[in-house]
Specification:
Blueprint (H helix, E strand, L loop, with lengths): L4 H12 L4 E9 L6 E5 L2 E3 L7 E3 L4 E5 L2 E12 L1 E3 L19 E10 L6 H8 L15 E3 L7 E9 L5 E5 L4 H7 L3
Antiparallel strand pairs: 1-8, 1-10, 2-6, 3-4, 3-5, 6-8, 7-9, 10-11
């Protein structure tokens, strides 16, 4: 959000030039095999659901370049509840526990491009969907105690009009700390 047109254009050029650094934290289903990775797969519309985007085969419309880097922060197992398509994470469905703990991976994710739902789409594309995602992973497990999408905007870094670097950070959510046992 810019206060004037000059600032808006200045920031817009940084986003278009891909010089803005964005860091997200995500909890995904399963143990991600590699310690880090780079996903370079264009994203287009899903033919089945107008709300969704898709990477890979079947994507419709204009395919837009999308690049996402990730690295593993921690692999862990946690008791969980089942997501159910069309339901919120609150209520009776969320109380149905799996019999065993389920594997999850806590990631740092850095999108180079900024496409709609890019992280969610790319993580699903490599078969590690974001936990608690009712749109892209409606039947997947969700760590018990997490009642929101397991994706957190950790920081953003850009230059201001004076040419100084500005970094805005958001602390790790309490429920992420509790679930991952990270300090």
């Amino acid at each position: 959000m810019a206060k004037n047109e000059k600032t808006h254009e200045f920031l817009k050029k940084q986003f278009q030039g891909r010089t803005v650094k964005k860091i997200y934290h995500a909890i995904v289903n399963g143990f991600v095999k590699d310690e880090h990775g780079f996903i370079k797969k264009p994203i287009g519309r899903s033919p089945a659901d107008f709300r969704k985007w898709l990477a890979g085969r079947g994507a419709r419309g204009e395919l837009r370049e999308a690049e996402t880097f990730y690295k593993v922060l921690k692999r862990f197992e946690a008791p969980c509840v089942q997501n159910f398509s069309g339901s919120s994470l609150k209520g009776s469905h969320a109380d149905k526990n799996f019999k065993h703990t389920t594997p999850f991976t806590y990631l740092e994710v850095r999108p180079k491009t900024g496409r709609t739902h890019q992280i969610r789409v790319h993580m699903k594309f490599i078969n590690y969907p974001v936990a608690c995602d009712l749109l892209y992973n409606p039947n997947g497990p969700c760590p018990k105690g997490l009642k929101r999408l397991a994706l957190h905007a950790r920081s953003i870094e850009f230059k201001n009009l004076k040419g100084e670097m500005v970094k805005i950070e958001s602390p790790m959510p309490k429920e992420f700390k509790k679930i991952t046992n990270c300090l």
